[in-house]
Amino acid sequence: MIETERLVLRAYREEDSDAFAALTGDPRVGYWVANVKDRAQSDVMMDRLNAHITAHGYGLWGVARKTDDKIIGLCGLDPIAEGDLPVGAGVEMAWRMIPEVWRQGLASEAAAAALGWGLANLDVPEILAFTADTNLASQGVMRRIGMKADPARDFDHPRLAADHPLLRHVVYAARR
Fold it and tell me: How far is 152 from 27, CA to CA, in rounded Å?
């Protein structure tokens, strides 16, 4: 568990399943990851994320406000397998937040905490983040938490069609 001024990043609980499904099923959130999940898919994802957290001590944690402990997003670190993406093997910094909390600084707060934890606790030379080149809000989060653009590593996402509007991805890195 990681705490910030306003947030707790933690493993998911059974009572989080409705809020998590609302997050992963929201088309405004899903647009930027080219994936909107139905309830069954969301439940499978939540179980998979928890299994990773249990096995490795980190992952894409649930983000809850301290005031009510309700899940408002996910944020954390996810391994990238060799050959999975053009950026190569490594660790990805990622986040998603419900639209009702966009532009409140919560994504930056959660991401900064997760990135700090990752650089302090994982034996990796860098942590990457990437998003569609049109996702200026996420790129702003990356800059605010101290990540630097790495344009030599920008890529076309291999899981998207050649004409998909989110095809081109920009890469940011935080190095030790």
Answer: 31
